[in-house]
Design brief:
With 1221 residues, this protein is an alpha+beta fold. α37 (712-723) runs antiparallel to α41.
Length: 1221
C-alpha cells in the first residue's frame, strides 16, 4: 500500500485515506518480502502512476465525495461497471474526463505511466489547462475546492520542476543523506539564486547559471571543526530602517512561479530540529528572513513563524538574539492578515517572546529592546486589519478589549527593559522607536509607563551615555505627551544644567531649546531656564556656548519685545563685549560674546576640594575691589597656604578680575557640579557623606521640617505619596535594633568618629557611616526621603515597592563593602608597598636633613613598608645604613644613621625590602647576597641569611628584588649570565631559575611586581618580562634607540605597565600591547621629542612613581642634578622641584603632545647665556654652614618616607643623601 503524508493540514476536506492494492501484480506479497528496506515499490517509479492520487483528484472535483470505498473497489476489480463516483459530471470538459478515466482504467496496461502524463502536461500551455478546468465553473463556481484545484492543476508541474527543482532535491535525498547542518550550509549558499529562479519572469530564467546542478559540494568534516573549537561566523541579522520596513508592506509582484518557494521553505524547516551548530542556526534564520520577503502572508504565519519562535528558545544566546530580529522582520512582511491568524500576537508571539525581556544573556535583551517598538506597531496594524475584516462579528473580537490586552502585555515587557540593570538595554529601547511606543500606548500610558521610567536615567551617575540618551529622546516623548509633562521636565532640565559632564550640559540645553520651539514649556519656565543657563555664555566649552546662544535666540523669538528687554537682555549683557539688541539672531550673539573662562582655570576650580570656601574668598575679593577707588590696589584679606597656592596657579593660568566675576556668576553651578562628582547623598535624614575628591568627613545638617517646602517635585507629587501606605514600622524609621547595630557596625562607627584625627580614620568612618545610612534608608518613609534629597533628585526613584528598595540598598551595601575591601587591599601595609600621600601633600625643595655618612656613591634607597619612618641606603663603600626620618632635626644639625652594617664584601650595588618589610636584602659587586634582619628591641641590623655566587658559573649579581612583593618571602636576583634566580628564604636551594638570552644584552636592573610577573632591563635597551607562575617569558619591549635601561619602576598597584628609564628619557610601556604609552622628555634631551640625534649630554638615572589625590605623578633625577615633578593628568602643572647649582634655565614650561601614538610630556625652556657659569666646588665634605641646598653630583635614587609628614629623599653619586620637605 502507499500513503500520502503532509506536515501541515490540507486545505480541502479530504478525509479518506486510500489503500491502493497492487491488484495488477500477482506476486506482490513475494516481491514485498524480497525487497530491501530502502528500495521503492515497483509501481512507485516513474513508469507506473499512483492510483491513490487519481482517486484524490476525483474526490476533489466531485465536491468531496469519495471516489471508491472498499466494496466498490473490489466490485470494480471483479469486472463490474465503473461506479458513478469514478466519473466526472457531464458539464466538465471532455478532455479532463478522458484524462481521469485513462488514469483509472481497470487494466494496468491501459493506464499510461506518470512520465507520459508529465510529458503531455509539460507540452500543453497553461491557458489551455485553465480553459479545461474552468469549463465546470457554472456548477461549481462557488466551491473553493474548484478554485484550489484550478490553482493546483494549472501549476502542478511548472517548468522549473523539470529543469531545476527535481535535480536540486536529489542533492538532499540521494545517498548518503547529508546532515542537517550541511543541508542548511548548502541552501545558504544557493538561497539568493533560488529566489531569483522562483521570482523572475519565466522567459529570463537560466537555471544552469543560477544554480549549477553538477557543482561539487565540499565535504565538511564536522568532527574536525568541533575539535578545533568551531568558530561560528558573524551573521548579521540586523534591524533595517523604517523605510525598508515600509517597503516590505507594499504588495510586491511575485513571479509566476513564486509559490514554488513553499517547497524550499518546507525543505529548510524540516532541517531545523536537527541543527547542532550555532552557525547553522544563524544561517537558517537568515534563509527564513529572505523567504519571508518573497512569500505570502499565509506561508509566513503558518510555515515560517513557528520555526523562528522555536529558535528563539535555543540554548545559544546569539541564536536567540538573531531570532528576535527575525521575528520582527517576519511579521513586518505580512501584508494581508488571514482571518484565522487575527490573534497571533496576543496568543502566540508576545507570550513566547516575553521571557526574553529577562533573559540572562545581555545581547538577547538588547535585541528585544531594539525590536519591541516594531513588534508593538505591527500588532496594532494586525488589530486594525482584523477590525476592517468583513466577518469581524463572526470572529467575536472586541477592538478595545484586544487593544487593552496588547497594552498590558507590552507594558510589562517595556517596564522590565526600562528597569534593566544594564544601561545599554535601556539605551537600546529608548533609541530605537520610543516614539512608536508612545503612539502605541497613548498619551496617558506614555506618561505613566515611558516618561516615568525615563526620568530615572538621570539617577545613574556612572553612565554618561544613558543620561545623554534621556535628553536626546525626551523631546519626542514630551511632544506626544503634551504640556502636561512640563512640570516634570523643568526640574530634570535644571538638573541636567549642573551635570558633571559637559556633554550632558550641552544635551540638556539642546533639549530645552527643542521643547521651547515646540511650545511645551510655559513662559515662566522659559525665563527661569534662561536665567540659569545664561551664565554658561562664559563657559570654556564652545559647544555649550553654542547651545546657550541657540536657547537665548529661541526664547527671544517666542517672547514679546517687552519681556525680552526686561527679562532676557539683563541676563545676557554682562557676558557680551558690547550690548546687543537683536539677541534673537544666534550668530550675532555668538560673535558678541566676551572671552570665556580659560579652560585651565575652570578645571583647577572644579578639581579644588572646597569650592564653597573658594567662592566665599572670591566674594570677599570682589567686595574689596568695590570698596577702593578706581586705579588703587585693593587690600585682600589673608588666605590659607592652600588657597594662596591655588590663586597663584590660577593667576599663572590666566585668571583676572574679570574671570573672577565670571566664576562668581557661575558659582551656584560650580558648587553643584563639584558636589555631584564628589559627594554621595545618603538616605539618612540630614546626613551628608563625602567620599570623593579626597574629602572624607561627615557633618550633621539642620533638618527643619519646612526648609524644603519649596521643592517643585514634592509639591507636584506629595498627594500621590500620601496615598501610598507605609509598610515599615515606626520603630525602625530612625533607629536599628541591637542585632542590626552589631551587623552594620554602628558602635564601631560612633567610636571611630570620636577618635578620628587622621585621613585614614576619616575614610573608614565615612565608609561605615555610608553602610549605616543605607541600612536606615530601608525603613525610611517616601516623603521623608523626598524632603532629604531636595529638588535635584527625581520623585520616581521612590515610586517602588519597599522590597525593591530593600534590594537596591542591599546591592549598594555589597558594592560599598567590595569597594572598601579593594581600598583595604591597596592601603593596608600587609598588601601594598606603595606609600599613599595625603591629598594636600606637595613635594617641596626645602632641605630638612643633610646626610653624608656614606664615603662613596649611594646606589639605592629603600623604604621599609613595615616601618614607614625608616629607610635604608647602600653604597659603594660597602655599607648598608638604616635611617629614621622621625629623628631628623634639620639640616643645621648632624643627623646620624640609626644602624650600619658592613659586610666587607665589596660595593653594595642593590638593596630591597623583604620578609614583610622587616628585613633588607643586599647584593654586592663580588657576588655576595645577604639578608639583614631589623631587631625590634634594638636599633641594630643582624645578619639573617647569606649566600655567595660563583663568578665562574653564576656570574656577578647586578640587581635584587622581592619576587611577588615584600610579603612573599622569595628573593630574586639577576646575574651577568642572563639568569634570574629565585631564593626562597624558608627553604634551602633555589626556588626557580629563569635563563635569558644574552643577545638581548647584559642585565642591568630588576623589577618584581606583586601581581606575579618580573621585568629585567638590559644594556641594549630591552625589557624582558617573565611570568613567575609558569616560569615562562611573556613578552619583551625595546627602547627605540637601544639605550641602556638604568631603572624599572612600577606604574602603581597591579598595573600591567612599567616605567623604564633609558638614558635621556623615561617611558611607560604597556606589557600587554608592548606599546609605549607615555614618555617624559626633559629639556636636556633635545628640542624635538623622541628624536635621539645628536647624542645627549645628560641622562635620567632615577625615577619615583607615586599617587596624590588619585592622580599619578613622577619625580625624576639624573646627571643634570635636577629633581623634576611630572604630573601625568595635568602636564602643565609639572615643574622643577630642585634646581642644579648655577642653573641657567629659565622660563620653563611643560606641554603634552602625542608623537607616534605616545603621549609625550615635554619640558621646554630657554637658556640664559648672559650669566657665565661659575666653577663648582670640588670639596664634597663641607662644613654645615657651607652646605648648598642642592645636589652637586648626579642623582642616583629617589624615594618617599613618612614620618610626621611625607618627605622626599634623594641620593647622589658623591655619597650625600638629602631629605626635602
Amino acid at each position: 500500500m502507499c500513503e500520502c503524508h503532509c506536515y501541515f493540514p490540507r486545505p480541502s476536506s479530504i478525509v479518506t485515506l486510500y489503500f491502493c492494492a497492487r491488484w495488477h501484480q500477482n506476486n506482490s506479497a513475494k516481491s514485498a518480502h524480497n525487497r530491501s528496506p530502502t528500495s521503492l515499490p515497483s509501481d512507485m517509479i516513474m513508469g507506473k502512476p499512483f492510483r491513490s492520487e487519481r482517486c484524490a483528484l476525483l474526490e476533489l472535483w466531485n465536491d468531496g465525495t469519495p471516489a471508491l470505498d472498499l466494496p466498490g473497489l473490489l466490485a470494480y476489480r471483479n469486472g463490474e461497471d465503473r461506479p458513478p463516483t469514478m466519473t466526472l459530471p457531464d458539464t466538465c470538459e471532455q478532455e479532463l474526463r478522458s484524462l481521469l478515466e485513462s488514469m483509472t482504467e481497470r487494466n494496468p496496461k491501459d493506464r499510461r505511466s506518470a512520465e507520459i502524463y508529465l510529458d503531455e502536461a509539460r507540452g500543453k500551455p497553461e491557458h489551455s489547462i485553465a480553459e479545461i478546468l474552468l469549463s465546470g465553473r457554472n456548477k461549481h463556481g462557488e466551491s473553493q475546492k474548484a478554485l484550489l484545484l484550478l490553482k493546483l492543476i494549472s501549476r502542478l508541474f511548472p517548468e522549473y520542476f523539470y529543469s531545476f527543482l527535481q535535480s536540486y532535491m536529489l542533492i538532499f535525498s540521494a545517498q548518503p543523506i547529508l546532515p542537517a547542518d550541511e543541508k542548511i550550509a548548502r541552501i545558504y549558499q544557493d538561497i539568493k539564486n533560488i529566489i531569483k529562479i522562483f521570482t523572475q519572469p519565466s522567459n529570463s530564467k537560466d537555471y544552469r547559471n543560477l544554480v549549477p546542478e553538477t557543482r561539487e559540494i565540499p565535504k565538511v568534516d564536522m568532527e574536525a571543526l568541533i575539535k578545533e573549537g568551531f568558530r561560528v561566523m558573524n551573521v548579521n541579522v540586523s534591524d533595517l530602517d523604517d523605510d525598508n520596513d515600509n517597503k516590505t508592506l507594499e504588495n510586491k509582484e511575485m513571479g509566476p512561479d513564486g509559490e514554488g518557494l513553499i517547497l524550499i521553505t518546507s525543505l529548510v524547516t524540516s532541517c531545523i530540529r536537527g541543527l547542532h551548530h550555532c552557525t547553522s542556526k544563524l544561517h537558517c534564520l537568515e534563509i527564513l528572513q529572505l523567504l519571508c520577503e518573497n512569500s505570502s502572508s499565509e506561508t509566513i504565519l503558518d510555515r515560517i513563524l513557528p520555526f523562528i519562535i522555536y529558535l528563539s528558545h535555543a540554548p545559544e544566546s546569539r541564536v536567540r538574539a538573531a531570532a528576535i530580529w527575525c521575528v520582527a522582520k517576519c511579521v513586518s512582511c505580512v501584508r494581508n492578515l488571514p482571518p484565522q491568524d487575527c490573534n497571533v500576537f496576543p496568543e502566540y508571539i508576545l507570550p513566547e517572546l516575553a521571557p526574553r525581556a529577562s533573559d540572562p544573556a545581555l545581547p538577547v535583551r538588547i535585541a528585544y529592546a531594539n525590536n519591541i517598538a516594531k513588534l508593538a506597531e505591527t500588532a496594532v496594524r494586525f488589530l486594525d486589519q482584523t477590525q476592517n475584516m468583513a466577518d469581524k462579528e463572526a470572529a467575536n473580537i472586541n477592538y478595545e478589549t484586544e487593544l487593552s490586552a496588547l497594552h498590558e502585555m507590552v507594558r510589562s515587557t517595556v517596564s522590565y527593559l526600562l528597569t534593566d540593570s544594564q544601561a545599554v538595554v535601556k539605551r537600546a529601547l529608548v533609541e530605537n522607536g520610543i516614539t512608536k511606543l508612545c503612539v502605541f500606548f497613548g498619551k496617558q500610558k506614555a506618561n505613566d509607563v515611558i516618561l516615568s521610567h525615563m526620568v530615572t536615567f538621570l539617577n545613574d551617575k556612572e553612565e554618561v551615555a544613558l543620561r545623554g540618551c534621556f535628553f536626546e529622546r525626551v523631546v519626542g516623548v514630551a511632544s506626544y505627551v503634551g504640556q502636561h509633562a512640563a512640570p516634570i521636565l523643568l526640574p530634570l532640565l535644571q538638573q541636567g544644567l549642573t551635570d558633571q559632564s559637559e556633554w550632558i550640559i550641552a544635551k540638556a540645553l539642546r533639549a530645552t531649546t527643542s521643547l521651547a520651539e515646540l511650545g511645551l514649556l510655559p513662559k515662566q519656565a522659559l525665563c527661569d531656564l534662561v536665567a540659569e543657563s545664561a551664565v554658561y555664555l562664559a563657559h570654556p566649552n564652545l559647544w555649550i556656548r553654542h547651545e546657550v546662544c541657540g536657547l537665548v535666540s529661541c526664547v527671544a523669538g517666542l517672547l514679546n519685545p517687552i519681556d525680552v528687554n526686561c527679562k532676557i537682555l539683563p541676563l545676557v549683557w554682562p557676558h557680551l563685549k558690547h550690548k546687543l539688541i537683536q539677541v534673537e539672531r544666534a550668530e550675532l550673539l555668538l560673535e558678541s560674546l566676551a572671552e570665556p573662562i580659560p579652560r585651565k582655570v575652570m578645571d583647577a576650580v572644579l578639581r579644588h576640594g572646597d569650592v564653597d570656601r573658594l567662592v566665599q574668598t572670591l566674594r570677599e575679593r570682589r567686595s574689596a575691589r568695590l570698596k577702593v577707588k578706581q586705579g588703587m590696589m585693593p587690600q585682600y584679606s589673608e588666605m590659607g597656604q592652600q588657597l594662596k597656592n591655588l590663586f597663584r596657579r590660577l593667576a599663572s593660568d590666566g585668571m583676572t578680575e574679570h574671570v573672577e566675576n565670571q566664576l562668581l556668576a557661575m558659582s551656584a553651578h560650580l558648587i553643584k557640579i563639584q558636589s555631584s562628582s564628589t559627594q554621595h547623598i545618603t538616605d539618612a535624614p540630614g546626613r551628608l557623606i563625602l567620599n570623593g575628591g579626597g574629602i572624607s568627613r561627615s557633618a550633621q545638617l539642620d533638618t527643619g521640617g519646612d526648609t524644603l517646602a519649596h521643592n517643585v517635585a514634592e509639591k507636584l507629587y506629595a498627594s500621590s505619596h500620601t496615598r501610598r501606605p507605609h509598610k515599615t514600622s515606626l520603630s525602625h524609621e530612625t533607629h536599628m535594633n541591637t542585632e542590626w547595630q552589631h551587623m552594620f557596625g554602628q558602635t564601631q562607627e560612633q567610636s571611630t568618629i570620636k577618635g578620628s584625627e587622621t585621613v585614614s580614620q576619616s575614610v573608614a568612618s565615612g565608609a561605615v557611616s555610608a553602610v549605616q545610612a543605607s541600612a536606615v534608608s530601608v525603613s525610611q518613609p517616601p516623603h521623608s526621603q523626598m524632603g532629604t534629597l531636595g529638588h535635584s533628585a527625581s520623585y520616581v526613584q521612590y515610586s517602588m515597592a519597599p522590597c525593591r528598595m530593600e534590594l537596591r540598598n542591599l546591592v549598594t551595601r555589597m558594592q560599598q563593602k567590595f569597594q572598601k575591601s579593594l581600598r583595604s587591599n591597596d592601603d593596608n601595609v600587609e598588601a601594598s608597598e606603595d606609600l599613599l600621600t595625603p591629598a594636600t601633600w606637595r613635594p617641596g625643595n626645602q632641605l630638612l636633613a643633610y646626610l653624608h655618612e656614606h664615603k662613596a656613591r649611594v646606589n639605592q634607597l629603600v623604604r621599609m613598608p613595615a616601618h614607614r619612618n625608616l629607610f635604608g641606603s647602600c653604597s659603594d663603600d660597602g655599607t648598608v645604613r638604616l635611617w629614621d626620618a622621625s629623628k631628623l632635626q634639620g639640616h643645621a644639625y648632624v643627623n646620624k644613621s640609626k644602624s650600619m652594617y658592613n659586610r666587607s664584601a665589596g660595593p653594595v650595588i642593590s638593596l630591597a625590602a623583604c620578609e614583610g618589610g622587616h628585613s633588607l636584602v643586599a647584593a654586592t659587586q663580588e657576588g655576595s647576597i645577604f639578608v639583614l634582619r631589623l631587631d625590634s628591641g634594638s636599633s641594630r641590623m643582624s645578619l639573617s641569611q647569606c649566600r655567595q655566587l660563583e663568578s665562574s658559573t653564576d656570574g656577578a649579581c647586578v640587581a635584587c628584588s622581592s619576587a611577588g612583593g615584600v610579603h612573599a618571602g622569595v628573593i630574586s636576583y639577576a646575574t651577568l649570565n642572563a639568569t634570574v634566580v629565585g631564593w626562597d628564604l624558608r627553604a634551602p636551594g633555589n626556588a626557580w631559575k629563569l635563563q635569558g638570552d644574552l643577545k638581548q644584552g647584559v642585565y642591568t636592573c630588576l623589577y618584581a611586581n606583586s601581581a606575579g610577573y618580573l621585568a629585567v632591563g638590559t644594556s641594549s635597551g630591552a625589557v624582558c618580562v617573565w611570568d613567575l607562575r609558569f616560569g615562562l617569558p611573556i613578552t619583551s619591549v625595546k627602547h627605540p634607540n637601544s639605550e641602556r635601561i638604568r631603572r624599572i619602576v612600577g606604574f602603581g598597584g597591579t598595573s600591567s605597565r612599567v616605567w623604564a628609564v633609558g638614558g635621556r628619557d623615561a617611558a611607560a610601556w604597556c606589557l600587554e600591547s608592548t606599546q609605549r604609552t607615555h614618555a617624559l622628555w626633559p629639556a636636556t634631551a633635545g628640542a624635538q621629542p623622541l628624536q635621539y640625534n645628536p647624542v645627549a649630554s645628560h641622562y635620567i638615572s632615577s625615577l619615583y612613581c607615586g599617587t596624590r589625590d588619585g592622580n599619578r605623578f613622577l619625580i625624576s633625577g639624573g646627571s643634570d642634578q635636577r629633581l623634576r615633578l611630572w604630573d601625568l593628568q595635568h602636564p602643565e602643572d609639572s615643574h622643577v622641584l630642585l634646581n642644579a647649582p648655577h642653573d641657567q634655565l629659565n622660563a620653563l614650561k611643560y606641554r603634552s603632545r602625542i608623537v607616534d601614538g605616545t603621549t609625550v610630556i615635554q619640558e621646554v625652556c630657554k637658556a640664559n647665556t648672559s650669566v657665565p657659569p661659575s666653577l663648582q666646588e670640588d670639596n664634597v665634605y663641607r662644613t654645615v654652614e657651607s652646605r648648598s641646598f642642592y645636589h652637586t653630583a648626579p642623582i642616583t635614587d629617589i624615594t618617599l618616607v613618612e614620618a610626621s609628614r611625607c618627605y622626599l629623599v634623594s641620593s647622589s653619586a658623591d655619597g650625600v643623601i638629602n631629605v626635602w620637605k
